[in-house]
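Feature request, filed as a ticket because there's no other form

It would be nice if the structure record came with a short human-readable summary line next to the tokens. Right now we just get the raw output. Example of a typical job, pasted below so the devs can see what we mean:
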Amino acid sequence: MNEARQQMLKWQEQGLIDNSNIEQALELGGGKNTSAQWFTYIKTMMLWFGVLALASGIIFFFAYNWDDISDFTKFAIVQGLIVVAFIAYTQTRRFSIASTSTLFFMTMLFGALFALFGQTYQTGKDPWQLFLIWTLFTTPLAFASRSSGMWLIWLGLANLTLSLYSDVHRTFWGFWLFSREHLMFVFALLNMTAGLVFEFLHKSKAPFLFNRIAAQTALVAAMVCFSFLSLYFIGNPKRYYHEFILFLLWMPAIYYFYRVKTLDVLIMASWAVATAVFALGMIAKAINDDLDGLAFLIFGILIIGSSTAIIKWLLYLLRESKATEENGHE
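Raw output as currently delivered:
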């Protein structure tokens, strides 16, 4: 939806444009999507579908013909395609959709290359090493793209690497980190750090990120992890009080930066849900089984009430956000 259409629909809501005249106003004011805009949208979608299909086709090609192709030929094909993709990237306009899709294709090819290496030369005992290398190779591509999509791929690979590492090792540099609960703590730190770095990259003088989607996603993922940590504390306060201290520091900090200093409705939505989860967890532990079946009724009412309160508060924040944007445009 373009800006002209959004503005005209707001005027309609305010009663400045009559409902019977809205179609004419949209047509005269350029609020309707033109055939050229639809063509651009379809072309972009077809480009991304084509890149995904090509990357998937290459992977399935090797899977189907694995026994019929020599190791040298397999590596030559993948590395040759990487070179071709790099040459194609140099011929595209920087930061365009074509260049970003080409970098995404290169990322998939690097993944195929490291998977091929693992299948050919390793026993599969430590797959986290291949994903770590894939993550490292994705880093410069994400910097070059300045795209949240590429950074989200990087974040997914980083989390997957950590998960696979924890399946094999329980310690890191002598620290016992990878029990189930401590692993959640490490995931929270990873996503929290990534979110802060993404915010810095977006707000720097020469922004390395064109939007905040990657930062928002990472911070929401961190919020989910902190929610689990708060529940671990409720279940065993003596064991998980360190994690709870970090939770107590995290929640007011998020509220200050994304409600008081600036407004981010998505992050505040995750904050509200995390607060409700912790509060309901404390109430559930207090109720325990003392009220027998009545506890389920009370808890159900509390869930419905907290959900309703969160929705109303978020609607208020959305109205406040829209009003702030309108004042900024004026």
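Something like this underneath would help us a lot:
The longest strand covers residues 171-172.
Residues 182-330 form one domain.
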